[in-house]
Amino acid sequence: MPIHRRDFLSATAAVAGLTMTGVHAFGAASKKAADLRVAVVGVKGRGREHLRSLGKNAVGLCDVDSDVLERIGQEHQERNGVKAAKFADFREMLEKADIDAVSIATPNHTHCQIAIAAIEAGKDVYCEKPISHDVWEGRQLVAASRKHNRIVQCGTQSRSSKSLMDAVAWVNSGALGKIEYALGTCYKPRPPIGKLDQPLEIPESIDYDLWCGPREKRELYRPQLHYDWHWDFNTGNGDMGNQGIHQMDIARWFLGEDTLSPRVISIGGRLGYDDAGDTPNTQVCYFDYEKAPLIFETRGLPRSKEGQKRWGGSMDRYRGTGVGVIIQCEKGHVLVPNYTEATAYDLKGEQVKHWQGGADHHANWLKAIEANDRSLLNADIQEGHLSSSLCHVGGASHQCGEKVATADIANSIAGMPLLSASFDRMLGHLRANEVDVDGEPVLTQGPWLDIDTQTERFTNNGDAEKYFKCPMRKGHEVPDYDA
Fold first, then answer.
1. At residue 20, does pLDDT exceed 90?
2. Which residue from 53, 152, 63 is spatially nearest to 102, judged by alpha carbons?
3. In CATH, what class is 161-214+230-358+381-461?
4. Domain limits, the chain
5. What is the pLDDT of residue 312?
6. What is the pLDDT of residues 364-377, one digit of tens each?
7. Residue 10 pLDDT exceeds 90
8. Percentages helix, strand, coil for the chain, rounded to the nearest 5?
9. Following DSSP, what letter does each residue of 180-228 receive, concatenated?
10. Domain spanning 5-159: which CATH class is it, in words?
């Protein structure tokens, strides 16, 4: 029988073997990794993967959906033999449970709120990507982790891949000459999410106020609350900030950049169907780093209109990948088609080197906690902040943009061959999906946004400031560490 919010009670600490002895800020450092006690917040979707990775370390579960919490709690007990304590509210969990660390897999818009609360309660944190919903939030999370000396890892698991570590080092040794550009691709099937005539009735099992967290509490007109929040800018960051951040992070890693790009532009839109989403399903972003640019392409439509009959298995590919990274150098290129593999090619297309093999990202985090040594992290929160923020500033350009005729867009970027080439490929893709890009304007061209790479603020567009720091609901604010 499902447990509903109106009568939902958190499981007692005695049931889970947890104590109510209060929080001790540095208790985790004295424990071996195998003995660390972790609570997972957000247990549907990615949270289930966290539980699989953490196994017996996961002694607490927290989710605003009591039906999900009950089901996943039972699943975790059957798989790992752990009868975890269950909480609806992360604040209650942090107050009552004697845990060492928190692993967060909630929707993007609550990542920083929960992570900073955990840090302030003396917990080490693993936070899913993107680590923030906007640039300002990410800055506060980094500042909180430093002030309270916590071990905070971003869930960009490619950073724990030995094969990619070696490939990055090899490229940066100059083996293929100078890097000319990095290209990230996210060609992933994203069918329409539907659109309701009447507001979605939120299931009784969900605490919707807590689910909304810092963001505006709105009526929803999509059929599904869970997952499809990705395609609503109020709570998500589109596919560039969902799947794409992995490829964004890998591309920035190869480039060796440790700031945001000095400027960015977005071209794209939500095209090919009409639904309740407002994030782009088709987009090119150009991050104008001085040494070598980073271009990012998002495509949620299949390779043709015919492909919309089946979606999966019919996506575009470019130079050997659909969801991946291409690092173009003077003497060849490196292809990264997944999280654990990379291949180098010369200018003739002949393979010259191959790397393969990954590692457990959660295990790296637990080892760093055991040693109480942030330098052991493969994806320190600052790295997660930078890669997340690249997605955010690209999204800001889009949201500041307006629909512009295709020919006018092409003319405005004619002096930028790499951006023009990406744009031309995007047009071909849209035409194959029977999107009329040659009639009335359908593509949104964002402005070039200039960025102060130290403060990470926009310097040439006042409208963009509201995307640097999104409004927050009273009582759910992310703490201001800049104040």
1. no
2. 152
3. alpha beta
4. 5-159, 161-214+230-358+381-461
5. 81
6. 999 999 999 999 99
7. no
8. 35, 20, 45
9. EEEEEEEE---------SS-----TTB-HHHHHTTS------SS-STTG
10. alpha beta
Strand pairing of 179-187 and 323-329?
A: antiparallel
Tokens 């093999």, residue? 357
Lookup result for tokens 């990954």:
358
| Residue 104 bridge partners (DSSP) | 41, 127
Peptide bond into 337 cis (omega under 30): no
Residue 477 has pLDDT above 70, yes or no: yes
Rounded Cα gap, residues 394 and 268, in angstroms:
11
pLDDT, position 44: 95
Q: How many CB atoms lie within 10 A of CB 37?
A: 21
Residue 73 identity (one-letter amino acid): G
H/E element, 59: strand 58-62
- Give residue 136's pLDDT: 99
Domains 5-159 and 161-214+230-358+381-461 agree in fold: no
Is the Cα dihedral 169, 452, 289, 357 positive or negative?
positive
Q: Write out the two tokens for 189.
A: 């099937």
Percent of the chain residues past pLDDT 70, beyond the cut:
94
Widest distance between CA atoms in the chain: 68
